[in-house]
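LOG
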Amino acid sequence: MPVWVVNRGSEIIPTDDLMGSAPIPLDSIQATRMHVRRLLSILEEDECTALVTSEIAEGSRNLSRDSVSEFLVDGILVLDLDPSMDRRKLTIRKMRGTKHTLKPRDIEINSKGGIRVL
């Protein structure tokens, strides 16, 4: 049974009468979509800019582990390694309202924890 977050962090677990006749399984795409959408809507209501991270399984063609987030966010930056060239890469896969290159760019992570686009 999913947990709903309301009123800036108060958690409620819906009862059977709130859920209807068929509860949503926690591992379903519907439950994932509901939780991700709710989290992003809380951030949007606060009019803040947030950097939400997600890992991608090796060899996956999805842009997030949950395969839902990429449809709900405004931008997607993919960080990757090119072991043959011994370089880290950054690719802008999606950025709403902005023209951008689709070419991967080399990046460098310095000793102070900063990232420099080369």
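LOG (cont.) second protein
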Amino acid sequence: MGFRRHGNGVAGMAERAGSGGLVLAATILASSLAFIDGTVVTVALPAVQEGYGAGFDAAQWVVNGYALMLGALVVVTGGLGDRYGRRRIFVAGILVFTAASVACALAPSVAFLVGARIVQGIGAALLVPQSLAIISATFPRERRGRAIGTWAAASGATTAFGPPLGGFLVDALDWRAAFWINVPLAAVALWLTFRAVPESRDPGARGPIDWTGAVLAIVGFGLLAAGLTGFSGGMGGAGAFAPAAIAAGIVGLAVFVAVERRAADPLVPPVLFRSRTFTGANLLTLFLYGCLAVTLFLLPYELQVRRGLTPTQTGWTLMPFGIVLALGSRFAGGLADRFGPRLFLVTGSALVALACALFALAVEDFWLGVVAPLLLMAIGMTIVVSPLTTAVMNAVPQNRAGAASSVNNAAARVGGLLAVAAVGALAGLIYVGATGDPSARFGILPEAAEARAVALDAFLVAYRAAMAVSAGLAALAAVAAAVFLRPETPREA
């Protein structure tokens, strides 16, 4: 018996059962697992690195292993739900994510932790696209916009509270608690899903999944990130193989492009990039989200290593960023609908570049050196997020909207992956050079007072350089918006 026999289908079934609120709660809670995890882990990174006595490259891979799988697979997993059942893939994602979270919490070594984070990224890639798909399938058209808005606002709020939650758990228990917290949240999400979420699929979904493209993307971007990260030192001497890994990654991505051009149902449809606006919006995404990832990756180190804040204090410091983003994005989206996205994308990216330039000054005063640029970055990202989505969706035909959204989401993840690998490696190299100690590890200060002072000075030099590069990435995002997106009059918008 299929859902399509019951009046309005899945939407009518959920509405009659009065379970719409529970469906929304399930999707919000499950999505929050993936969103919170990213912010919680960044706050815990200094403690993770110190706990294992690991190199800075290992800390990079704790972030990048997750980003690699999520970025490469998110364009595939939405199609899995359409074909095999959205609730089925959603539940599978929650289970994989939870099992990987337990593995992260029990990790006996940093290499094991990185492996578990890679699996966690697979789980996130399975569940995140299904959240919106389930909402779209469950709620009738007249209620769908409000449901998606509630999902976005709630997900943004939970993401904002991720840093203080992570900091509290690290201080009260240890960094492993940042992963254990996922278990009870996942249990509630599963209970809600089995109780309220009806199964749905797209009967028209046909054709093979482009697994070849997915594998090539993972291998290409993974090798490129590994090569870039290897330059920061560590990884058991992987630095010697860094150029070869980068070359192999470039070759792998070239093969990926060639395969996609010939695939019947490609992972990344090349036809989308015939649109100048779509190309420019994704270039902006690549640069701007690379800048954002680097900043949120390095800022907890600056707060804890240089300024001596606790993880809890670090979390409370970062929380306003998420709050501003959650509260302001809807307002910015309305203005972009009225005046067109180009002005907002250029202005917002420029504000983010200015914020990173202020971070690069590393002013001693806490309010001027941290709070002011963090709020400025939050305002810049708030101005960008909704107009960017508008630009991407308006640049393609309606029947390509799902693919366009997936490609843009992947561009954000891949931008962060490559930027953390490259800029993090630069910071690590500068730090080692400034200390004069080949065994020095960025983020871990020696105990001896004299060596500690040298390490702090070296840290400051490396941090300033990394933030300057991050500012450059945001500036490139502003240039991409100015060059590729054509000006619009209010009437045209």
